[in-house]
């Protein structure tokens, strides 16, 4: 998108946000997030939050958001912990024992659906549910390994390899799932959270099937989940995935739009649709050479990004995936710096 016309959000009734890396980073709101959500509410838009973080219940997340200045209700929050509990409730008899590897919030969700959370394989669990918890350790994984080898169904709330922090990406639940995968020689029987589409389709269903835009910071969870759900998506560059990741994204994890932050919801000059219609447009052109992609021209860095996506995502031998980008001229070098690419 470029100058002129209304904001991106004008085309959607419901906006579904990821949380970590989009609305907040650990326990602090990302600059502009509070104002963006307030503006959506003021404009009559519906808002929902879909998070793979299984360490908090929906009401706790809503309280956290409200404490940051983002008014939120528990029914606007969809967590992978609650979704996993619902899946197990549908598949297991009432009162069935479920070994919980994760935070207290996950245990509470299991209890809330009439199942019995346990902590040891000796209690004969019929299922293991695994979610992120900062205190999860070797002993927890060992109990899960024993239970799964004995025949328990293995459900993971999500498989995010990392989670964002003020010190950079830290190991997420996917890293802990990978440890069990290595020990068992196989993966979970079921993964509930993003990139599975359930959280997004549930949000849209609760909103009466309203036109929905997904906003996330991770290509491998938020954006791929939106793609699987058949929903348009906006990648914001405030969290895990950066421009280098975007250029290398496989078809199933490519967003519809990209912006540096949530200003892209409202300001046409702060968002771009990707890829560009061709490797030339909006003042930029890109060509694949043997050792690099050459970017030339002038204009918005986001338009340069759209052109670069057109080149690197192109099918066939002319595609530039994996090649470095080389600027031609000062304007191109400035654009690459703005995008966080070597110039």
From TrEMBL:
Q: Looking at the Swiss-Prot or TrEMBL record, what is one Pfam family this protein matches?
A: GNAT_like
**Which domain of life does this protein belong to?**
Bacteria
Which GO terms fall under molecular function for this chain's record? hydrolase activity
Stored InterPro entries: GNAT-like (IPR041065), HAD-like_sf (IPR036412), HAD-SF_hydro_IA (IPR006439), HAD-SF_hydro_IIA (IPR006357), HAD_sf (IPR023214)
Chain ranges of the GCN5-related N-acetyltransferase-like domain: 283-341
Keywords from UniProt, A to Z, are: Hydrolase
Q: Mind telling me what this protein is named?
A: HAD-IIA family hydrolase
Name its species: Micromonospora cathayae
Q: Supply the source organism's classification.
A: Bacteria, Bacillati, Actinomycetota, Actinomycetes, Micromonosporales
């Amino acid at each position: 998108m470029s100058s002129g016309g209304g904001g991106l959000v004008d085309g959607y009734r419901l906006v579904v946000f990821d949380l970590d890396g989009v609305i907040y980073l650990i326990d602090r709101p990302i600059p502009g997030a509070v104002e963006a959500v307030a503006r959506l509410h003021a404009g009559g838009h519906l808002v929902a939050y879909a998070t793979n973080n299984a360490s908090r219940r929906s009401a706790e997340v809503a309280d956290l958001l409200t404490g940051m200045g983002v008014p939120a209700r528990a029914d606007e929050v969809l967590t992978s912990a609650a979704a996993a509990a619902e899946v197990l409730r549908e598949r297991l008899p009432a009162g069935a024992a479920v070994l919980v590897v994760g935070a207290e919030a996950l245990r509470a969700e299991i209890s809330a659906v009439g199942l019995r959370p346990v902590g040891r394989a000796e209690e004969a669990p019929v299922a293991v549910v695994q979610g992120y918890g900062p205190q999860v350790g070797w002993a927890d994984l060992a109990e899960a390994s024993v239970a799964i080898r004995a025949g328990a169904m293995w459900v993971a709330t999500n498989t995010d390899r990392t989670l964002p922090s003020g010190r950079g990406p830290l190991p997420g639940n996917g890293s802990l799932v990978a440890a069990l995968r290595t020990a068992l020689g196989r993966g979970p029987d079921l993964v509930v959270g993003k990139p599975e589409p359930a959280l997004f389709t549930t949000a849209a269903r609760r909103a009466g099937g309203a036109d929905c835009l997904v906003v996330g910071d991770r290509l491998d969870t938020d954006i791929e989940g939106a793609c699987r759900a058949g929903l348009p998506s906006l990648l914001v560059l405030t969290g895990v995935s950066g421009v280098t990741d975007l250029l290398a994204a496989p078809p199933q994890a490519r967003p519809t739009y990209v912006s540096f932050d949530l200003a892209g919801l409202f300001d046409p000059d702060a968002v771009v649709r990707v890829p560009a219609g061709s490797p030339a447009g909006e003042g930029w052109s890109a060509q694949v050479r043997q050792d690099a992609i050459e970017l030339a021209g002038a204009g918005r860095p986001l338009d340069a990004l759209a052109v670069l996506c057109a080149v690197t995502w192109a099918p066939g031998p002319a595609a530039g995936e994996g090649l470095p980008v080389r600027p031609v001229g000062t304007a191109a070098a400035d654009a690459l710096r703005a995008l966080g690419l070597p110039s």
